[in-house]
Amino acid sequence: MSDIKLEKLDDNRWLLPQTGAMRVPGIIYANEKIYNLLKNDESAKQVANVAQLPGIVNYSLAMPDIHWGYGFPIGGVAAFDLDTGVVSPGGVGYDINCGCRLMATELTLHDINDKVKDLTTALYHRIPTGVGSTGYVKLSGKDQKKVLEEGARWAIKNGFGSLQDLETTEDCGCLSGADPEQVSTRALERGKQQLGTLGSGNHFLEIEVVQEIFDEPAAQAFGLRKGQVVVMIHTGSRGLGYQICDDYLALMVKHQSETGIVLPDRQLACTYLASQRGRNYLAAMACGANYAWANRQILMHLTREVMEKALQIAPRELGMRLVYDVCHNIAKIESFKIAGIEKKLCVHRKGATRAYPAGHEAVPGRYRSVGQPVLIPGDMGTGSYVLVGQTKAMSETFGSACHGAGRVMSRTQAIKTSQGRSISREMADQGVLVMAGGKGTLGEEMPEAYKNLNDVVAVVHEAGIARKVARLKSVACIKG
Amino acid sequence: MPKYTLFDHTADIGVEIFGRTKKVLFANAACALFDILIQTIDNESKIGKGTKGQKKIMTAAGTDVADLLINFLRELLYLFNGTGFVVIHCIVIDCSNRKLVAQLWVESYHQKKHVMKTEIKAVTYHGLRVERIKNGWKARVIFDV
């Protein structure tokens, strides 16, 4: 862990004391086991680096799925004052609004048990996966502009789902302030071909079954019950988002010296939120976020069609509906109480999920009495968790929780470890059917490459920032 | 001296690139990028096997030699991700600390000929280093995958 020294605050939190150029201290959410993993990489140092950025409020935070990223750590959360603070494209990440979408069905495992292979094959053929896959939807320039401005609503207006889906999408599937004029021709060009694609790497579509309920009232509010078949989609803004991030990162690096901000890592290149360049980035980033929401909305619709056809059932029998859609790579203007005063801040979540509690106006009406669903996918094959945001998240973590298990093994290490093994057969032995196109994807994404999801979730649960509602077990998974 | 070696990074791919001269260092960086991205079906995974294909001149600029390397790799990545070209050979014709001109030999990506190995989302600045070593030059770059 380089030379960083952490002080234990309690069973689930470690303080990174303010030293050197740090403007605030850091707090890392971790138990002893996760703390010990921090020694293997540079992620704690990255928490300290983020703490050096101007206008950072309270703490530089990291969730328990923390691991070594570039610039910000993955699992990093940092909020900035709108007048004195900065926005950093690297603090959002290349995959703008990478996120998760959970869909519930009326089916039980019994209904699909003997059709899992056919169903998965049908999904694999219908949902474009893998590097360079082109999308189901071909966009004209005019349509693309609308996608960037309207997000999931555009997809629904064009027949991919129903208006109801918007209610249970974070920010109703559209970030305001999106301005396609701030998006480069290169980014637009890359986006034209990829709407309605899953992508590669850790992106996936998984059929899961509700294995255990921890919180009956919240599960009931979310429409989840034991034995129920659900579908989880994990993807983002594809090449369009990567290009937006890269374009603005290059621009900010080029003009960094003009801002007078000294950086410990060029990848943290940033500009003041109040500057024109900062506003332009946020307007372009919103376009990326909206594209990602449209993408997940289209993929949900394709999934619904495939399931109805493959299982030969009517829409009513399938009963697919959106439980929730959350983004986990984003910078958003949100309000929090700082020293007793309500203040608007720019919250960067780099591999972290929003986790608003009961009663918050941004939580959909039907969930408001329990809180916002927090979707936490685990490693391939283990399954996922559904949590619900807690009040403490508002005072401690800018309304944020973890976003996944978090890698613990590098991709090259994972490939080495998996050599000579058939990961897909190992998964099949555990009752999970996996279909993946990419060479090496399964090795890279093998379960041992990730932290134990149960440990990660236990930390946010015990720290009181998000409460366990349900655990989902993988049945089948398609990957790029 | 190898053209490049990979080093471990938890979430991404780290590459250490070597070159007798700065020009060779940059050409080897191009080679590393496409080796990670693509494998040709006939298993000739290394680029630089010949000078067939379409010729292209590429220029890049940066605020210093490290920024120049990132911008060069960025342009090469866009050539693939944005326009579907695979670089099969690269010679750096001219290279200062802030500007570079490269001669590329490229071919169009084709599923029958190329296998995608890893999707590289971007070339990052994180932990970036370009330095002189005893026998030439060395650089460290992390690709976001």
Main β sheet profile of chain B? 4 strands, antiparallel
> Which residues of chain B form runs of ≥5 with pLDDT under 50?
none
Segments of chain A where pLDDT lies below 50 for 5+ residues?
Answer: none
Strand order of the largest sheet of chain B: 1-2-9-8
Name of the CATH superfamily of chain A: tRNA-splicing ligase RtcB
Q: Per the principal axes of the C-alpha atoms, what is the gross shape of chain A?
A: globular
Q: Treating each run of at least 4 consecutive H or I residues as one helix, how many helices of chain B?
A: 2
What do you see in this structure?
- The complex is a heterodimer of chains A (480) and B (145).
- Chain A has 480 residues and is of the alpha+beta class.
- Chain A has one domain (7-479): tRNA-splicing ligase RtcB, CATH 3.90.1860.
- Chain A has helices at residues 32-38, 43-50, 109-112, 116-126, 141-150, 152-157, 164-167, 185-192, 216-222, 238-259, 276-311, 315-318, 391-396, 411-418, 423-429, 441-444, 453-463, and strands at residues 7-10, 13-16, 26-29, 60-67, 74-81, 86-87, 99-108, 204-213, 228-235, 271-272, 321-327, 329-338, 341-350, 353-354, 373-377, 384-389, 400-401, 433-436, 466-479.
- In chain A, the strands form 4 sheets. In chain A, strands 7, 8, 9, 11, 15, 16, 18 and 19 form an 8-stranded mixed β-sheet that branches.
- The two termini of chain A are 33 Å apart.
- In chain A, 61% of the residues are buried.
- The model of chain A has no long low-confidence stretch (mean pLDDT 94).
- With 145 residues, chain B is of the alpha+beta class.
- Chain B has a single domain (4-144), classed as 3-Layer(bab) Sandwich (Archease, Possible Chaperone, Chain: A, domain 1), CATH 3.55.10.10.
- Helices cover 23% and strands 47% of the residues of chain B.
- The radius of gyration of chain B is 14 Å and the shape is globular.
- The two termini of chain B are 26 Å apart.
- The model of chain B has no long low-confidence stretch (mean pLDDT 90).
- Chain A binds chain B through residues 40-43, 67-71, 74, 90, 94-95, 130-132, 186, 189-190, 199-201, 239, 242-243, 245-246, 249-250, 253-254, 265-267, 269, 407-413, 438-440, 480, and chain B through 6, 8-13, 39, 63, 66-67, 71, 74, 78, 81-82, 109, 115-119, 121-128, 142, 144-145.
